[in-house]
Amino acid sequence: MLTRVVVAPSGFKESLSAQAAADAIADGVRRVLPDVVIDRIPLVDGGEGTAAALAAATGGRLVALPATGPVGEPVGTHFALLGSRDRDTAVVEMAAVAGLSLVPRALRDPGATTTYGVGELIRAALDTGVRRILVGCGDSGTSDGGAGALQALGMRLLDADGRELPRGGRELTRLSRVDARGLDPRLREVELLVACNPYNVLCGVRGVARVFGPQKGATPAQVEELSAGLENWAKVLTRDLAITRTDLRYGDGTGASGGLGAGLAALGARLLPRFEVLLAHLDLDARLARADLVVTAEGAMDHQTPRGKVPAEVARRAKLSGRPVLALAGTLGEGAHNVPGVDAFSGILPAPMALTEALVRASELLTDATERALRMILLGARLPAHAEVSGTQRPSSVR
């Protein structure tokens, strides 16, 4: 009998926040099990909603301010000041100022978008006197290697003639040297941490421009241009800043958020696996252990899900306590059936529909899909353990 359900989804990119996804799933659970205890744990991965979620979890607050958005225009944004034992920590969510959702579809050119606003938020956090700044990476609309952020923090990027480069990843192919003498000196006085997906690297065949550039609007030619620029960026930073302990090209997490990880690592930031950093504030493991069923979700479930996505992390942790896991997804791709720890999964679309319609109806679709999946689970629970279907033993799980 199900008495306690943990609902632990990520957000659905450009559609639902993690909180909205958790609410939609909870509504579906209530349709089937009106009296069940539901523990909602909207999970953040460094992308959209990270600052708000960590502020809420620690009794902190959001600080609202304007900053430079990814296409160069001012946007309203925020960073978080955490509470409780983390009161000396600020959280800068790059997606809140340089995320893909802030780039109009007609302007999606990752060669032109910038992380300049991320540097402005870091500067604003420094103004508060915190001792630690955590930068959450995810859902980015940029591919500039963090160059814009470093420019906002006082670094000069110069071409062969000594002229300062404009913002944007495509300019990095012309980079000749960097001048770090103008960097904000307060950066030396704080601990700079980056919560990122360690699978994302800056360069090579699995480099960030090749893997994520097309999602941000890059053509094949632009992907190669961006890749070349990021290679040059890593080379110049390593040489001019005398970096010896960090591999900016292939180090874990250097490709996070269009290469922001590499740019901040060049300043001495520590790149950390995002779930180790973020989930510690949510008491996730203990809450999963108390569940009879765990429901997680994400926008797309496929072969990349085990590479640092929320459903895979939830399933891994739930299995430490032997808890069953149901995963729901906006779309199911190749490899969706191979996510370790997921016992059953389902897509949320009841019929083919246009992407624009699916995005608008995501909450409704997720609620309906939760209801359908739970009814199937309860039906399966009522079947005799050795029931036979068409002369064969019933499989242990149906996907």
From TrEMBL:
Record's superkingdom?
Bacteria
For biological process, the GO terms are: organic acid phosphorylation
Q: Does the keyword Cell inner membrane apply?
A: no
Q: Which UniProt keywords apply?
A: Kinase, Transferase
Keyword Transferase found: yes
**Pfam families in the record, alphabetically?**
Gly_kinase
Q: InterPro entries given for it?
A: Glyc_kinase_flavodox-like_fold (IPR018193), Glycerate_kinase (IPR004381), Glycerate_kinase_RE-like (IPR018197), Glycerate_kinase_sf (IPR036129)
Report the GO molecular function annotations: glycerate kinase activity
Identify this protein by name.
Answer: Glycerate kinase
What organism is listed for this UniProt entry?
Streptomyces regalis
The major lineage groups are:
Bacteria, Bacillati, Actinomycetota, Actinomycetes, Kitasatosporales
